[in-house]
Amino acid sequence: MDNWPKVNFGNAGFEAAFERRDVYAVSSQDARSRKRRLKVAIIGAGGVARAKWIPAIRRLQTVGEPLDVCGIADPRSEARDATAAALGCAAYDAVETLLGPTLPDLALVLTPDASHVTVARHAIDRGVATLVEKPLSADYFAARDLARAAHQKGVLLATVANKRFSPPYALAKKLVEAGALKASPTLFSAKFTLGYPYVDLLEGGTVHVLDLMAWFMGPAAKLHARAVNRPDGKLESAVISTTFASGAIGSLVTSCAGLSFKPWERVEIFGRNAFLVVEDQLETVLFDEETGPAKSWRPAIPNTLMFDEEFGGYVGQLENALDAVRGVAPVNSSGLDGAAAVGLIEATRRSITANTEIDMAREGLVP
To answer: Are 40 and 105 in contact (CB under 8 A)?
Structure first.
């Protein structure tokens, strides 16, 4: 390829650091400042809100995004009051009271998984665009019905798929779209390890890689999974084989028998006589010739100008949702995308239980 895609790896970037002399990348840009100002409500003040989404909001505000937080809701008084004080916004004990006095332009649903659908449904019924943390629901049909209801009402529903916005994966996607694989993707191969004993292997972690699989390869037509369980009966490891509607194939190995703080994620995408590797959501490598060098991109970790909320994809996901609300960009991870990822989880569970291949359309698992 003659021109490599330009993807910011979560740092200040050459243009900011050297041309604008903005080494911390904090100056507001005219195009951004001219955007319509929006109000965002946060529903849920747990770890993901405080560690990921609020820093993402602050990062966008720092660079001039016209964005205000109008309130936060959480039934736990200590969590909501502390978070509201840090944000300088009003605190509410429930979504109903938050969405009562004034309606935001976008609601971030960051509650525990079991309440995602109920909370999101309340916001959608009020006509409020909604971004829901993953998984959209633990129940596929609830996720599907939520996505369909939002579509019928004409209300934006986005689902968190932050890895799509993480620079190494965003770069891989642009390379695929630019023809770097010399063909449409023919094979997807991935490995994912999750060592946290308190997180569901599929819903809490593998869902990210299943979403990436669908993003790169398109919808799955058939799926077959085999598994090993832990002594307590819970899923420990699974091998998932997939045939896509395009005719391509894929495999995913996922396990909680390994470690979370060691090499934990690898995605490979093959075309014909070329393939891409994304290693540990850190480095993107293109192999496209037998004798020439591999072409790789990775951030300089000691660089103090790295922004975690950008590299993790949260800034990009939030910015995309805001621009979708404004009507100036299509949403990059819709409610139907979120339901599709949950459908792959449901198909995996069914295949393991029945020890058979699952036809996604026949089983009604295609949203």
So the answer is: yes
Q: How confident is the model over 5-41, as pLDDT tens digits?
A: 877 776 777 777 788 888 878 887 788 889 999 999 9
Measured from the Cβ of residue 362, the count of other Cβ atoms closer than 10 Å reads 10
pTM of structure: 0.94
Detail the DSSP E strand segments found in 288-350. Answer: 295-297
- The C-alpha atoms of residue 278 and residue 115 are separated, in whole angstroms, by 33
| Rounded Cα–Cα distance for residues 24 and 59 (Å) | 11
Q: Cβ distance 32 to 65 under 8 Å?
A: yes
C-alpha 278/C-alpha 172 separation (Å) is 8
Residue 16 has what pLDDT? 79
Q: Is 323 within a domain?
A: no
Residues 318, 316: Cα–Cα separation, whole Å: 6
Number of domains comprising the chain: 2
Q: Of the candidates 135, 162, 189, which is a domain's last residue?
A: 162
